[in-house]
Amino acid sequence: MKALLALEDGRTFSCRSFTGHGETFGEVVFNTSMTGYQEVLTDPSYRGQMVVMTYPLVGNYGVNPEDVESDRVHVSAFIIREYQDFHSNFRSTGSLGDYLTEQGILGVDCLDTRALTRHLRTAGAMRAMISTRDLDPVSLSERARQTPKMEGQDLASRVTTDQAYFWKNEERIFIAPNTPLTPSLWPDGSGRPKVAAFDFGVKYNILRCLERAGCDVLVVPGSTSADQIRALSPDGVFLSNGPGDPEPVDYAVETIRALIGYKPIFGICLGIQLLGIALGGRTYKLKFGHHGANQPVQNLMTRKVEVTSQNHGFAVDLNSLDPDQVEVTHINLNDRTVEGFRHKKYPLFAVQYHPEAAPGPNDANYLFTQFVEQMKEYM
Asked: Last residue of a domain, which of 145, 167, 200?
């Protein structure tokens, strides 16, 4: 059925809904990955955003339960050039269209994604609305301008877990509500480093990597306090990825600041931004963000280049970091933005990209190993 996408600047794109009637809004961003659309859909870092896939044909390998990165779809809408309803893959258990429909997510195709992507690269990511009911360009663009901006929204609180859980053998083992966080929760005699992982929108593959690196992983809500973490007595603290603007997540910044120097800390994506603010730095919004599986990042320690998977719209301001305390370890070769840093005194480090990939070709598991080695030094 006919649909219309209207940007806040008045530009409109005709399209077709392949998931039935609907209407939604969000910030429009483009993703350059050629595969991995199910991981994109279920990445909590996309909360509040409509995702445009630059690869033209999507849906051809269907969906399956193994490829999800969280317990639900988080994108506001999925925008593609051509939808393929006939899915052909030995792992497939259903079609993309049915998957989106079941979760109430609007999917549209027959849209000139190349023109839309070029516009976003020039004008920047912006708010938009998609509707199958309101097809008036002027009305829909005006409504897009009335929707919330990405800046100033605490989206992490909308995607974090409500209760703590252990990640073990691909499963979430929830702790009973109102259970105090104490050392008795940890498995007896495992000898493995114990990681308290803050969930600001964590992806399952990060938890898989921590477990494979030899850790016992307890995932805690993003609002967990520093006192609660100390009472838990972990060997290390992990700061997860997550959606949106880091500055409104001030409660997490206060907690992180209080934990600096307590135990080794490792952050990814939103985690590096929150850690940067906690260290006295600032963040800013990128023009159209980094979303895809082909971002070149140079490791300044080894001079090697890693082709990375990324998904973020904000970055740490390089000039806001104190060079006497913080050393930049990774840099984006496209725009020279900060992709990683470490503290010169305390055992903490973080990266902006996703070393666990999912989706993406990058495999930088040495970072998880480095985190484990730091924790063992303090065990």
From this structure: 145
Q: Do residues 281 and 367 both lie within one domain?
A: yes
Residue 200 confidence (pLDDT) above 90: yes
* pLDDT at residue 234 is higher than 90: yes
In the 3-class helix/strand/coil scheme, how is 239-299 assigned residue by residue? Answer: ECCCCCCCCCCHHHHHHHHHHCCCCCEEEECHHHHHHHHHCCCCEEEEEEEEEEEEEEEEE
Q: Which residues contact 103 (CB under 8 A, 6 or more apart)?
A: 72, 73
Same domain, 132 and 207: no
Nearest CA-CA partner of 151 in 24, 285, 281: 285
Query: Which residues constitute the domain of residue 42?
Result: 2-145
Q: Which two tokens stand for residue 301?
A: 């320690």
Residue type, 105: I
Among residues 27, 69, 339, 356, which one is catalytic?
Answer: 356
Whether 119 sits among the annotated catalytic residues: the reply is no
Does one domain contain both 35 and 162?
no
Does the pLDDT value for residue 362 go beyond 70?
A: no
CATH code, domain carrying 126? 3.50.30.20
Q: What is the pLDDT of residue 361?
A: 67
Q: Is the pLDDT of residue 61 over 80?
A: yes
In a domain, 254, yes or no: yes
The structural domain count of the chain equals 2
Q: How confident is the model at residue 358 (pLDDT cuts 50, 70, 90)?
A: confident
Closest to 166 in 3D by CA, of 134, 192, 141, 138: 192
Per the listing, tokens 């494979």 go with 212
168 domain-assigned: yes
Q: How remote is the C-alpha of 341 from its chain's centroid?
A: 19
Q: What is the pLDDT of residue 180?
A: 95
185 and 329 assigned to the same domain: yes
By the 10 Å C-beta count (0-12 exposed, 13-18 middle, 19+ buried), 67 is classed as: buried
Do 168 and 43 fall within a single domain? Answer: no
DSSP symbols for 70-110: SSS---SEEE-SEE--S---TT--B-HHHHHHHTT-EEEES
Tokens of 28: 């429009």
Say whether 291 is catalytic.
Answer: no
Whether residue 151 is contained in a domain is answered as no
Active-site entry in 215, 269, 330, 343: 269
Q: Is 330 a catalytic residue?
A: no
